[in-house]
Amino acid sequence: xxxxxxxxxxxxxxxxxxRRPAGALLxxxxxxxxxRIGVALVVLLVVVALFGPFFAPHGPTxxxxxxxxGPSDAARFGTDHxxxxxxxxxxxxxxxxxxxxxxxxxxxxxxxxxxxxxxxxSRNILDDVLMRAMDVILAFPQIMLALVAIATVGPxxxxxxxxxxxxxxxxVARVARxxxxxxxxxxxxxxxxxxxxxRLRILVGExxxxxxxxxxxxxxxxxxxxxxxxAGLAFLGFAPNxxxxxWGFMIQENRLALVQQPWGVVLPVVAIALLTIxxxxxxxxxxxxxxxxxxxxxxx
Amino acid sequence: xxxxxxxxFVVRRLLLGLLVLGLVSIVVFAATQALPGDPxxxxxxxxxxxxxxxxxxxxxxxxxxxxxxxxSWIGGLLHGDAGNSLAAQEPVTDLLGDKVVNSAFxxxxxxxxxxPISVAIGSYAALRRDRTFDxxxxxxxxxxxxxxxxxxxxxxxxxxxTTVFTGFLPAITIISPGARPWNDMTAMILPTxxxxxxxTPYVVRIMRASMIEVLESDYVEMARLKGLPxxxxxxxxxxxxxxxxxxxxxxxxxxxxxxxxxxxxxVFNYAGIGGALRDAVSTQDLxxxxxxxxxxxxxxxVLNLLADVATIIVTPRLRTRL
Lengths: 300, 322
What we know:
The structure holds 2 protein chains of 2 kinds.
Chain A: H1 12-19, H2 21-29, H3 33-55, H4 86-92, H5 94-122, H6 125-138, H7 142-153, H8 157-184, H9 187-194, H10 199-235, H11 247-254, H12 263-299
Helix pairs in contact in A: 2-12, 3-4, 3-5, 3-12, 5-6, 5-8, 5-10, 6-8, 7-8, 8-10, 9-10, 10-11, 10-12, 11-12
Chain B: H1 2-34, H2 39-44, H3 50-60, H4 66-78, H5 92-127, H6 132-146, H7 149-162, H8 186-215, H9 218-225, H10 230-267, H11 273-282, H12 286-314, H13 316-319
Helix pairs in contact in B: 1-12, 5-6, 5-8, 5-10, 6-8, 7-8, 7-10, 8-10, 9-10, 10-11, 10-12, 11-12
C-alpha cells in the first residue's frame, strides 16, 4: 500500500483491518459445507455449459430422427419436438443462459455499486435523487420491465442483458449504500478529506473495499435471480435465437410433449435448478460466514 | 395526536406512491412508444405499406408531439379507457376484465395459504433453533428461494401430472369462457402450489429471524420470570411483536406475486393477466402491454404502501417517531 510516510495522521491501521474481511470471508465461508456443495454444483454446471458443446454427439440443430422419440442408440436422451438430439441441445444450451446472466449481473453490480457508493458518500440532495430514482425502478417487478422492453424491441441479446442488468442495479445500489453509509462517517474518511485526498480516491481506496463483503453476498443472490430471469424469459419464448439451443427455451418448446418424451424438459429443468441452488448455497454460505466474522470481531 | 401522526404518514406515503406511479407511467410510455424509433414500423416490419403504417400510427395515437401522446394515453387510462387491443381489435378493458379476476383469485389463494404456513413454520423453527426442524427448513427455504418459479412449476407438472404420477392432477388450468377459476378447484392446486413454494421461503426466514430476536428480548424473559405459561408467553407476547417486521415482507411478497404470476400462469396456461401479458408481448400488442404494466405497477405500489402502514401500526416503537 502506497502511503506517504511524511503524513503523521495516516489512517493506515484502521484501513487495513477494515480491508481484511473480503478475502478472509471467502476462506471462512469455504469451511461451511453448504458453500462447498454450492461451489461444487456451480463448477459442475459451468463446466457443462462451457465445455458441453465439445462433447455433444450432434450439432444443436441437427435432425437425428423422428420427433419426440424416447432414448435410443442414436439419441441418448431421445429426440425433441422436431427431431433434434435432446442430449446435444442440452450440452449446447448452457452457454447462452450462463453468459447472459453473468453479463447482466456484472452490469447491475458495477452500476449499482457505483450509484450506492456515490449516494452514500455525497450526503446531500444527490443521495436522495439517486435513491428515489432507484425506487422507481424497484416499483416494477423485474420481469415486467424486461417484458415491456421486449414488446417494442424484440428479444435481442443486448436488450435482455441490459434490462436484467438495469433492474438488478437498484437492488445492488441499496446494499452498497447501506454498507457504505456507516463507513463514510468514520474518522479515517474525515481524516483523509482533511488531508486533501481527492474524493474519488477516498471513494475507491477507502470506502469501496469496506463494502465488498456485503456486495459479495448480494452479487451471488443477484446472479441466482438473473439466471432464473434470463432462463424464465427464454421459457416464455423470448430467447435471442429462434430454435437456438437454450435451456430455458428447450423447456418451452418440449413441454407440450412432456407425456411422450419428458427428457427434453427434465434435463434443462434439472440443470437450471442445480445451477440456481448452487449459486444460492454459495451466497448463503458467504452471508453466514460474514455474520460469524462480525461476531468474532465484535467479541475482540 | 397519535392518530394524526399515522394519518399524516399515510397521506405522505400515498403522495409518494402517486409520484412513483407517475414516474412509472413515463417509463412505460417511453419504453413502449417514444424510444426506439417508430413502433408502427417495428410492429409491421419492413414490408409495411405507407397506408398501413399510417393506420397503425393513428390507432396507437402516434400523431402529435410526444408530450400530447403521453397525456392522451394517461388521460385515457385515468378514465378507464386503455385503448384498443391491436390483436383482438377490442377495448383492452373488455379483454382483460375476467383475466384480472382470475389472476387476483390465484394470488389470493397463494397468499391465504402461504402466509399462515410460513408464519407457523418460521415461528416453530425459531423455537427449535439449531435443531433438526430448524436446520431442515433452513435448507428447504434456501433451495426454494433459489429456484425460479417456472422450474418449480414445470417440476410439479412432471411429478404430479404427466410423468411420475400420470394424471394425478391436471397439468394445465382450463377456465372455459364464462366460467370462474373457483368452479374447478383441482385445477387450481398446481399453480397455487407453485406460487406458495415461491414466496413461502422469504416469509419463513424473516419470521424466524424476527421471532428469535423477540425471544431473546427482555420483555419475553420478564414474562417467563413472572411464571406465565410458555404458551401464553409465545402467543400473547412474542408472536405479535415478531409479526411486525414480517408484515412488510408479506406485502412485498404479495406484490412479488403480481409479477410471479406472469411465468406461472404461462406454465399452466392459466387465463390471467400474466398469460395475457406474455401473449401481448409476443404479438407486440402495445396497448395491452402498457395497460398491464401500469396495472401490475399499481398493485405493486399499493401493496408496498399497505406494508409500510401495517408495519407502523403494529410496531408501537416506530409510531412515536412520526
